[in-house]
From TrEMBL:
GO terms for molecular function: ATP binding; ATP hydrolysis activity. This is Methionine ABC transporter ATP-binding protein. SUPFAM superfamilies: ACT-like, P-loop containing nucleoside triphosphate hydrolases. Belongs to the ABC transporter superfamily. SMART domains: AAA, NIL.
């Protein structure tokens, strides 16, 4: 549905130039919720804004629903942009217009007849859970309600793609949950493809089917979230399940075991203690639901080193468990 190939984008020239995108390629399948994560300045906003060509890449290809965006003329681009809705961190609502007018505004540019605009705004307000609030002004709404209006406005022209630029970053955790639920339900009900950028790993955990990690303008990992969490050494996976760094007195060997799907409910630690007669210490654990399945990571200290530790690690891997060695043992 969205295919970005070999995108490059540099801001400025000479010694002060910033390479925001450096050979970025990304595939987002129809109906996916795809999350791009990365630190501040990694290039996330630039990447998102190339999809509807708010930011024109220096080179590379941007294809949305089979249309190559970079070669369109102004009229073609205006038309193509109607199939790409966008929501923003700070909502970007017009404060002097009512909720209804904010939504209708998105349809005015498309010259939609007035009666149709009204009907569509009413319909879409209901979809986002704001029925009856069309006459309110943005200042009379909570942050969560403002973002619902932002989403309604983005959906007004019946797009096939929704771009979300940190849509929940300005919201409290409870409101974030409800907005993520809304994004997930419109993704399903409207068969909408969602590309979102976020610095919150919770967003990826809660709703994303696929994700990519952007670093200094480069994609360093991408794939299905369930696949990434079962990939040894995945940095995205360790950010999804963050555990404190090992301490010098943790023991000679420290390992992380990542569980997902079928391996989540096995009595691994009890078995380790029994089969290897080891006093295993649990240094930390994070468990959550990802993509509808239980997944998590447990950090263990083993009181053995060298070949004894290697034997334990080999045994765990032999059981189909994903083991990352942080200290001691062979990785
Ligand atoms: N219009 C611009 N002019 C010059 N430099 C820019 C411009 N927009 C972005 N940059 C620079 O490009 C790099 C990538 O910025 P971008 O906003 O895409 O990153 P980001 O990952 O979205 O960061 P944040 O999470 O802080 O918004 C940064 O170094 C930024 O300072």
């Amino acid at each position: 549905m969205i295919s970005l190939r070999n995108l490059r984008k540099t801001y400025g020239r000479g010694p002060g130039a910033v390479r925001a995108l450096d050979d970025v390629s990304l595939e987002v399948a129809r109906g996916e919720i795809f999350g791009v994560v990365g630190r501040s300045g990694a290039g996330k906003s630039t990447l998102l804004r190339t999809v509807n060509l708010l930011e024109r890449p220096d080179s590379g290809s941007v294809e949305v629903d089979g249309v190559e965006m970079t070669t369109l003329d102004q009229a073609g681009l205006r038309r193509a942009r109607r199939s790409v809705g966008m929501v923003f961190q700070h909502f970007n609502l017009l404060s002097n217009r009512s909720v209804q007018q904010n939504i209708e505004f998105a349809l005015e540019a498309a010259r939609t007849p007035r009666a149709r605009r009204r009907a569509r705004a009413t319909e879409i307000l209901e979809l986002v859970g704001l029925e009856g609030r069309g006459g309110s002004y943005p200042a009379q709404l909570s942050g969560g309600q403002k973002q619902r209006v932002g989403i309604a406005r983005a959906l007004a022209a019946e797009p096939t793609v929704l771009l979300s630029d940190e849509a929940t970053s300005a919201l409290d955790p409870e409101t974030t949950e409800s907005i993520l639920d809304l994004i997930q339900s419109i993704n399903r009900e409207l068969d909408l493809t969602v590309l979102l950028i976020t610095h919150e790993m919770e967003v990826v955990k809660r709703i994303c089917t696929s994700a990519a990690l952007l670093e200094d303008g480069r994609i360093v990992e991408q794939g299905a979230v369930t696949g990434l969490i079962s990939t040894q050494g995945s940095r995205l996976a360790s950010q999804l399940f963050p555990l404190a760094a090992p301490q010098p007195d943790d023991g000679p060997t420290v390992i992380d075991i990542t569980f997902s799907g079928g391996t989540a409910d096995r009595p691994v630690i009890a078995r380790l203690a029994r089969d290897h007669q080891l006093d295993v210490s649990i240094l930390g654990a994070v468990v959550d639901r990802i993509g509808g399945t239980q997944a998590g990571r447990t950090r263990l200290a083993l009181p053995v080193a060298g070949t004894a530790a290697d034997a334990v690690i080999a045994d765990l891997r032999g059981q189909g468990l994903l083991v990352d060695v942080l200290k001691g043992g062979r990785s």
